[in-house]
Each structure stands twice: as C-alpha cells, then as structure tokens.
Amino acid sequence: xxxxxxxxxxxxxxxxxxxxxxxxxxxxxxxxxxxxxxxxxxxxxxxxxxxxxxxxxxxxxxxxxxxxxxxxxxxxxxxxxxxxxxxxxxxxxxxxxxxxxxxxxxxxxxxxxxxxxxxxxx
Amino acid sequence: xxxxxxxxxxxxxxxxxxxxxxxxxxxxxxxxxxxxxxxxxxxxxxxxxxxxxxxxxxxxxxxxxxxxxxxxxxxxxxxxxxxxxxxxxxxxxxxxxxxxxxxxxxxx
Lengths: 122, 108
Prior knowledge:
Shape of chain A: globular
Helix content of chain A: under 10%
Oligomer: heterodimer
Distance between the termini of chain A: 40 Å
C-alpha cells in the first residue's frame, strides 16, 4: 500500500526550532515530488513548497520562501519541513502529499499524509 | 500568482439531489485543475485531476468539466458521505500551485 506517515503533534514556544517528518512507503520514494500544504485553524489549504527526493530539487511558494526549509533523506524515504524560529502564526496542520505521476512537476496530489498539528504559543 | 475563486462558499443540498460547484481561475490554467474533498478531521482526498479525470476509486457520481478559467465539479446524487468541503487547485502556473478557498457542501 502506498502511504505517507507523518510525525506526531508538536507543541512549541515562539522562537523555538522544529522539524516534522513524512515517511513514504509502498513506492519508489525518489521518483515522485512530495509537497507540503498548510491548513490554519478553520481555514483552507495553502501551498508551502515541494521537493523531488531523487535530486533534492526544492521549490517554495513565495509566501513561505525564507520562512521554512524543506529537505529529504532518500536513504530512509523521509521528507522534512523545518522552522528555525517558530511564530504563533505558524500554528496549523501541515500535510505532506505526493504527486501522482513521476518526475512531472505539473501534477495533482494523489497521496496525502495524515497531517501534523503544530501549536506554537507566544 | 493565479487566484482561484470558488462559488458558492456554502451549498445546502438534500441527499439524492445534484450538487454543482464552480471554480474560476484569474487566468487560464488549461486543464491542469484538480478537485479535492476534505471531511472534518481528515486529510484531503483527490477526486478529479486534469479537470475531468476521476482519481482511482472515486465513484462515478463525481464528474469534472471545464478548461481555461471556468471549471465545474458535479455530484450527481449526493450521498451522506459526500457532505464535506471541496477545494479546487490549479497546477499549471508556478509559483505557487494555488488552491481555491473551498466550498462547503452541507445537508439541507
């Protein structure tokens, strides 16, 4: 079964660092783009950025460029989203999701992780 | 950045009735348009990609149409499990691949 399993909920203070993970299984991890999507409480979906684990090609939405870092460790089929200094406004659910086809960058997400709730207190 | 506008914000429908959801792009996205369903407390699920192709395992009562800037998701006969929030997303123009703000389908 193709799946993405994310790390558990996090409660942090403003200014702290954080790295959350997304482990892929059931498919070739290096051949599909994996993206991150933010959902703030009671709100819609927002693109954060995306990575191609095969060569670590990474792209960010302008709204998130410089605010987060996306990385991947293909040896353990895991993608990451990290913050160096959290803000209260980073409080949200973060989903990882996989593109449905291979290298194509223009694609929809057909596999989603279960989401990681990040709560940041000020 | 391409802005995706969904309408209506909320759609009240009785079970068994037809639901029609709209999504408009601020500029052409060709047919690079996906629809997702999100139930409360769950991750989104891909319904439609390429504007009109159903994803694996999606029932035939879900259909998508349109190209360019105007798109429609139709649910032919609403079942109880279809009450959810629906999002469109364009993946034609980067950056970024934008989502609409969502349409909530609720029980009338």
